[in-house]
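Consortium newsletter contribution from the modelling node. Members have asked for a concrete example of what our holo predictions look like. Here is one, prepared for the threonylcarbamoyladenylate complex that several groups have been discussing at recent meetings.
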Amino acid sequence: MQRWSALDPTEKSASLQEAGAVLSSGGIVAFPTETVYGLGADARNTAAVEAVFAAKGRPSDNPLIVHISQQNQLQSLVQRVLPMEQQLMDTFWPGPLTLVMPVIDGALSARVTAGLDTVGVRMPDHPIALALITAAACPLAAPSANRSGRPSPTTAAHVADDLAGRIDGIVDGGSAGVGVESTVIQVQEDGHIIILRPGGITREQLLTVADHVELDPALSDVAAETAPRAPGMKYTHYAPKGNMSIVTGDHLNEVAVFMQEQLVMAQERGERTGVLVFDEDETIYDGSLRLTLGSLSRPEEAASRLYGHLRQFDEAEVTFILAQGCAEQGVGLAVMNRLYKAAGGQFIRV
Ligand code: TXA
Ligand code: MG
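And here is the predicted structure:
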């Protein structure tokens, strides 16, 4: 496995040309984006796309997002662009917004779309990602560069932990920015937006462009009786090895007292305990690995730290984790969505 680091993200960078050549000849290479690291492959090459599914251990019914570096690459991928879609791309691209649009038959490997008649496309806001797509000279299918079921990687070290020996290379660009994945949306003919997966572009930001923004009902369906429109949302993603529950309540001190009691009881049962809190909670939580997500008033911090912290609980072999919830505002909606999935839906309201 090759490792390219300390990159100059210009099209002339020799390392990026090399990594791009590996991609255009059918190899699979992990690279940084502004959200999380992706594992890229030429989206037209079925063998390369199959290698991505194999390296990740990903279920084959879960489609991949296609990454482009210029808007004109869309013409050869999607059947049409609605006026609202155009407005969203003009406003938020490059950036963490994926649009699901009707795919042109035969434009991409059918493995990318998992047999659907739509494709999710985005233009990442990261100089290395953009330069790499240009160097590869093809649309890059890229899911997050983690083993399926592990938290998404926000550093090259996370990628190596999960995928060393299974992929052709890693482009190391330091820490990814946002820390949670892109927002996946579908625009309806009438211009209404449905959020299939909350992410880096917030519902509030989308509402500055569109009057109607709804969440896919499957996102709040605890019993999982509604099939999500983003197939990936049905899997227990991001699961730490320990048993995790989210704790919320109207008063932080009550939440803290409850968590402290539960953690002590768990320790008495022989569990290794961990707690994920916000800065506003100053409780010490004796005997537990205590990690903080920053201030409750800045969900961006929580987004950027979340996956790294989940990995840290795994490294410390924590078996029982309690996580404080935050408000579902701004990127807090995506943070709570990922926490909820990491907790396998286990939710306690104090
Ligand atoms: O930020 C991101 O989006 C990262 C970086 C690497 O770009 N990528 C990422 O890809 O998160 P992945 O494969 O881990 O997640 C793709 C999500 C899944 O939930 C999948 O079901 C959904 O997007 N998706 C992809 N194509 C779709 C389609 N045609 N229709 C509905 N959902 C789709
Ligand atoms: Mg993923």
